[in-house]
Write a structure and sequence with these properties.
- By secondary structure, the chain is an alpha+beta fold.
- The chain folds into two domains: 126 residues, Diaminopimelate Epimerase, Chain A, domain 1, CATH 3.10.310.10; 133 residues, Diaminopimelate Epimerase, Chain A, domain 1, CATH 3.10.310.10.
- It is 16% helix and 44% strand.
- The protein has four helices and 18 strands.
- The chain has an 18-stranded mixed β-sheet that branches.
- The chain is globular and about 50 Å long.
- The N and C termini lie close together (7 Å).
- The mean pLDDT is 97.
- Pathway: Amino-acid biosynthesis; L-lysine biosynthesis via DAP pathway; DL-2,6-diaminopimelate from LL-2,6-diaminopimelate: step 1/1.
- One of its GO terms (cellular component) is cytosol.
- Its main location: cytoplasm.
- It is found in: Cytoplasm.
Amino acid sequence: MKFTKMQGIGNDYVYVNCFKETVEDPKTTAIKVSDRHFGIGSDGLILIKPSEVADFQMDMYNADGSRGAMCGNGIRCVAKYVYDYGLTDKTFISVETASGIKYLDLTVENGKVALVKVNMGAPILEAKKIPVVSEKEQVINEPLLVDGKEYRITGVSMGNPHAITYIDDVKGLDIEKIGPKFESHPAFPDRVNTEFVKVLDDHTVEMRVWERGSGETLACGTGACAVAVASILNGYVKEEEVTVKLLGGDLKIYWDREENLVYMTGPAAVVFDGEIAL
C-alpha cells in the first residue's frame, strides 16, 4: 500500500489515496500503520476517497482502529494532499466527513498549500447530542467527579465529543493517569476527548489533549475549536480570534456568533511518502 505521512502541528496521520489504492480492512490497517515501533507511526489512518456529495471524502480511523468522525488537523492535511498531489486545482474545496461536509479555503505559496482555513461548522452544546449525561440542557462549568477529584467541565461537540476543563498547570499535568479516567467516565456514553486548558490572556489559551482512542496527541483541531468556544462561553476570552497553543504549535480559531460557525486556520505538512506491505 502506498501512503503519505502528513502532520498538522504534530497531529500525524497516514494518508492513503483511495482513488488509486484499495484498503480492504481499514480498522486493522489503522492499528498496524499507527504502531510507532512495528508500523509507520501515527495517530491514525485517513483515507481520501471520491465523494458523491462533495469534492472529496475523508474516512478516518484512530490508532486503536476505532472510527473517527472528524479531525481538524487531519482535514487540513487532506486539503494539502489533494492540491499538492494534483487531485484538484481548486483553492476552495468541500470534503465529506462522518460529521458532515466541511469547506476549506487553501492558501497556496510557491505552488504548495501552506495554510488551510476550515469551516468547522456549528458547535453542538446540547448535552444529549454531545453526548454528556446531565440533567441540564447544556454543560457549562459544571462539576464532575473524576478519580475522586472534582473538576468543572464544559461540554462541546465539533462532530465529536469534548470535555474542557481549566487548570493552573498544563505542563505538569499527569495526563497519562487522568486522561483515561475522563475518556471512560460514565458521564460520556461515547467516550470523550478531554482538553486541559490554562488561560494565558483574553485571546490566548494553552491546552493539552487526551483523545479517545489515541491517547495524548500533540494537537487536536476539533479540540482547539471546542476550547475556543468553551473559553468564550465561560468568559475567559473575548469574542474574537483566539490563539490556541498546543504541544505541536498554534491554531487560530474564530467563532462567528452571528452565523454560529467556527473557523480554524493552521498549517499542514508532508512528512514523507512510502510503501508498506500489509
